[in-house]
Amino acid sequence: MGSRSIWNNLNPFRWSKTIRRVLLAFMAVFAAGTCGYVQIEGWTPWQAFYMTLITVTTVGYSDYDKSEDAQMFSALLMLGGIGTISYCLSQIVQYATTKATNPEARMLKLASKLTNHFIICGMGRTGERVARKLAGEGKDFIVIDESEGLVEQFRRDGMIALRGNATDDMTLMVAGIDRATGLAAVTSNDAANAMICLTAKALNPDLHIAARAETDSAVGKITRAGADVVINPCRYGGDGIVESLVRPEVSCLLFSNPSIGSGSLRFVEYKVSNLDTCHHVTIESLLQDYPGIVFIASRLPGGELKVRPDVHHELKSEESLVFAGTAEDIATFSGRYRNAA
User: Fold this and answer.
1) For 12-64, how does the pLDDT look when each residue is reduced to its tens digit (9 = 90+)?
2) Residues 6 or more apart from 190 whose CB is under 8 A from it?
3) Residue 16 confidence (pLDDT)
4) I need a labelling partner for 179 at 20 to 30 A (CA). Which of 31, 79, 153, 312 fits?
5) DSSP category for residue 61
6) Angle between helices 45-56 and 17-41 (to 10 degrees)
7) Beta strand pairing status for 265-271 and 208-212?
8) Which residues, including other chains, have CB under 8 Å from residue 231's CB and lie 6 or more apart?
9) Residue 3 near residue 170, CB atoms below 8 Å
10) For the chain, which domains are there?
């Protein structure tokens, strides 16, 4: 099924079949009634339609005197019309109930409301870890996978999960790629990740893309396909293990480790807003207000990463700052500056 399962829910010629059948039934009843009265009584089409309407709705006949043939036809019309209308109403109620409880329709509705969210393509162990981490950060995200079982699992966990092929334009558009902030291509297939990056970048050139590569040789190819960051989980995990063996204290700072408690060091990226620049904020003034924070680097839009920015440096709009601090320091900073993440 793949992305077709998503498209079928959007296609009005598929999801409105019941409604079309109901409308055709209504039209057939009124057409038959109108034509019948015109032939039997010689009434105008409007008179015939009006008589059909009050017959089917059982309003009454005080306005008209009918012949015996017309009375017989009215009896048949009432029996057939009322039965048809009852069936149509039951179909409408069933259709509305089904749409309201249809998980796919619910996912599509939730996905359409998200903006500045993240899209995770591939729900293996890496994709699950990315999803759990984003959920812990309080970020909005959508997961995409072709496995019905995985999609159902993540839906039960309260996540917005779509079943589809992430290399397909329609699937990414349904996931709101034009409104998304970032995308993670983390399937176990390097070729699929490269195609996801290529498709996503074509649909949203400003999208930040992080991708997974199973082999070192695939890193360059996925980067050329549009990924901003490419990570080999084996290499990354191996480097972390070596750090923990050779430099255990450094490892505790660089890698999240629950054993070192709430005072552990956290690295944060902050995007400077226009409001900050209006107050002529400098690194020095931030250090005075938040002495527990260590400013590591800064990058202007389109510029190079500058390590240890000068304390007299005045922040510019859309500039990115990278700094470190304890969870308490970060919470204090974030209480004033909402763009820290």
Assistant:
1) 444 456 677 777 887 888 888 889 888 888 888 888 888 887 777 776 665 55
2) 213, 214, 215, 218, 221, 222
3) 57
4) 153
5) -
6) 120
7) unpaired
8) 210, 211, 212, 213
9) yes
10) 4-101 (1.10.287.70), 105-237 (3.40.50.720), 262-336 (3.30.70.1450)
CA terminus-to-terminus distance, the chain: 37
pLDDT tens digits for 264-283?
677 888 888 765 555 678 88
Counting DSSP H helices and E strands in the chain, the numbers are 16, 10
Cα-based angle 201, 272, 277 (whole degrees, multiple of 5): 135
pLDDT, one tens digit per residue, over 185-225 is 999 999 999 999 999 999 999 999 999 999 888 999 999 99
Pairing mode, if any, of strands 265-271 and 160-163? unpaired
Alpha-carbon radius of gyration of the chain? 32
Residues facing 266 on adjacent strands = 325
**Residue 307 to residues 5, 117, 229, 291, Cα–Cα distance (Å):** 48, 29, 19, 19
Distance CA 162, CA 153 (A): 11
* Run of H or E including 325: strand 320-326
For strands 182-185 and 265-271, give the pairing.
Answer: unpaired
Asked if residue 235 lies in contact with residue 216, where contact means CB atoms within 8 angstroms, the answer is: yes
pLDDT at 96: 67
Instruction: Specify which residues 212 forms β-bridges with.
Output: 231
Q: What percent of the chain has pLDDT over 70?
A: 82
